[in-house]
Amino acid sequence: MPVRIAIVDDKASNRSIIKDKLLRHAGFEICFTAENGKDFLEKMKDLSPEDYPSVVLMDLEMPEMDGVDAVAAGSYLYPSVKYVMLTIFDDEEKIFRAIKAGAFGYLLKEESAENIAGTLIQMNENGVGPISPGIAHKILQLVQNNTVSLVQKKTSEKEKTPFNLTEREQEILKLLIQGMLYKEIGHKLDISPNTAKKHVLNIYGKLHVNSKAQALALAYEKGLI
Amino acid sequence: MPVRIAIVDDKASNRSIIKDKLLRHAGFEICFTAENGKDFLEKMKDLSPEDYPSVVLMDLEMPEMDGVDAVAAGSYLYPSVKYVMLTIFDDEEKIFRAIKAGAFGYLLKEESAENIAGTLIQMNENGVGPISPGIAHKILQLVQNNTVSLVQKKTSEKEKTPFNLTEREQEILKLLIQGMLYKEIGHKLDISPNTAKKHVLNIYGKLHVNSKAQALALAYEKGLI
DNA sequence: AATGCGCTAATCCAAAGGGATTATGTGGAG
DNA sequence: CTCCACATAATCCCTTTGGATTAGCGCATT
C-alpha cells in the first residue's frame, strides 16, 4: 500500500516542489497539505483515523504555529503518525527542541532535496527515523559538548571502572586532582609517600599520560572525577 | 593526498577485510593496524605527528583496552585525529559513552560493510562525522526518552577577568591546563621557557596556589577554563 | 602449591617544578 | 619626563616528579 504523506509548509512553492518530487515515485500518496501548524492540526481533526497520514513532512519556521509546537501537539494527539522535520535550519537549539517534541526524523532541505523520496522509502522499510548526516553530526556535538547529559542510568549498571583503575587508584586520583603532593597523599592515606608515588605512576600508565597536569586534564575532560 | 587510516580491531580477519575494502579505492592509505586500544596508543606514541593517521577506525569490544577508553585517551593525546567507531553493537549506553569519549563518528558494521570507503570519503569532503542511520536513530531516541537533557550553559555577559589575570597569563593558563611543560609553553608561544615559568609563577601568586595541580584544580572548579 | 594481582615500600637517577631575585625593553598614565 | 605595569629573560638553589627496578605481603583462583 502507498505511504500516506502530509506536507506542512508556509510557502506554497515548497509544498508543490516536495509534492512533485514525491509523486514522481510510485508508492507515495499526498494526503493533504497545510500552511502552518494550526492549519495542520485542524485538518487532522477532520480526518477519521484510517485517513491519517503515516508521515508528516513539517517545516520548522511557520507563522501561526511553528513546527515544534505542531509536532508537540501532533505527537500527543496522533502518536501513530511519524513527524519528519524538513527545514533549512540546523540550529542546535531547534534540533533539540524538535526532537524533544517528538520528531521522528530531521532532514536538512539542501541535503536531501534530491532524495526525500529515497529517504522516506528507507524509513518505511527499516523503521528508522531519517536524519541528515549534518544533523546527526550536530546532535553528536551536543552530546560531546556537555550541553547534553545522561540523566538516568537504567538498570543497576555495573558502573565500569574507567581505564581499569583499581579502587585505590581512583582514590588516589581524587587526591591528585586536589593538587596534593606525594607526601601529602601518603600522609592522608597512611601510606608511604613512595607508595603514593607508585600508585600515581601506575595511574599514568593506565591513562597513557606522563604528568600530573596531563592526568588531571584527562580526568576532567573525560569526567572521571 | 591520500587519507591516512589506522584500523584497530582485535580480530585479524576484520582488520584485513576492512583494509582490503579500503585499498580497493584510491585515496586511502593504511597507516597501521592495532589489536586493541593499548596497542593503538603505543603505536601512536612511536609516531611523529606528521605520521599520525587522520582517521582511526576503532572496534568497540577489545581485550586489554576497549574502544571507549582508547578514544578517550586518544582524543586527548591526539586531538587532530578523527575517531570513528566501527562496531556491531548498538547498545545505547555504549553509543553514548563512546560519543562522550570523543568519537567523531559511529558506524554499524553491517550497515556500512559495503560502504565504509564511501562514508569516509564523504566525511573527508564535508567534515561531517559519519553516523549510521540506526545509530542516529538511537541517539534521537535517547534524547526523546528523557534519558538525556539539555544542560543550559550559562554564558555570563560580563566576561569577568578572572583573578585579574593578564591576557598573556590567561593564554598561558590555558596551555598549562593542557598539561604542557614550561619548555613546551615557551616553544608554543615563541618565548623562553624561563619566561613561561615566570608567567606561571605569577599566575600562582594571583590564584594563591603553589603548584600546577592546584592551579588546574582551581581553574576547573571556578570554571575559568 | 603455584600463579597472578593489588598494595605496600624502597632506591637511584635525571628531569622538571617552585621560589626568589635581578634585569631590560616597552607602552601607557600621570 | 617619570612612574608603573607587563612581558621578556636569566640565575641560583632546593624540592618535587617521573621512570625504572626490585621486593615482600595478602588474597583469590587454579
Main sheet of chain A, how many strands, which sense, barrel?
5 strands, parallel
Alpha-carbon distance between the two ends of chain A:
55 Å
Question: Kindly state the mean pLDDT of chain A as a whole number?
Answer: 82
Largest interface: A-B, 57 and 55 residues
Which strands sit side by side, in order, in the main sheet of chain A? 2-1-3-4-5
- What is the ordering of alpha helices and beta strands of chain A? EHEHEHEHEHHHEHHHH
Strand content of chain A: 5-15%
| Rounded radius of gyration of chain A (Å) | 26 Å
Poorly predicted runs of chain A are: 152-159
> CATH architecture of the largest domain in chain A, please?
3-Layer(aba) Sandwich
The number of distinct helices of chain A, counting runs of at least 4 residues, comes to: 11
Number of strands of chain A: 6
Q: Mind telling me the CATH class of the largest domain in chain A?
A: Alpha Beta
Oligomer: homodimer
Query: What is the number of independent domains of chain A?
Result: 2
Task: Provide structural commentary.
The structure is a homodimer of 225-residue chains. With 225 residues, chain A is α/β, with parallel strands linked by helices. Chain A folds into two domains: 3-144, 3-Layer(aba) Sandwich (Rossmann fold); 162-221, Arc Repressor Mutant, subunit A (Orthogonal Bundle), CATH 1.10.10.10. In chain A, 50% of the residues lie in helices and 13% in strands. Chain A is built from eleven helices and six strands. Chain A has a five-stranded parallel sheet, with helices on both faces. In chain A, α3 (67-77) links the parallel β3 (55-58) and β4. In chain A, α2 (37-45) runs parallel beside α3 (67-77), α3 (67-77) runs parallel beside α4 (92-101) and α8 (167-177) packs across α10. The radius of gyration of chain A is 26 Å and the shape is elongated. The termini of chain A are far apart. Residues 152-159 of chain A have low confidence and may be disordered. Chains A and B meet through α4, α7, β6 and α11 of A and α3, α4, α7, β6 and α11 of B.
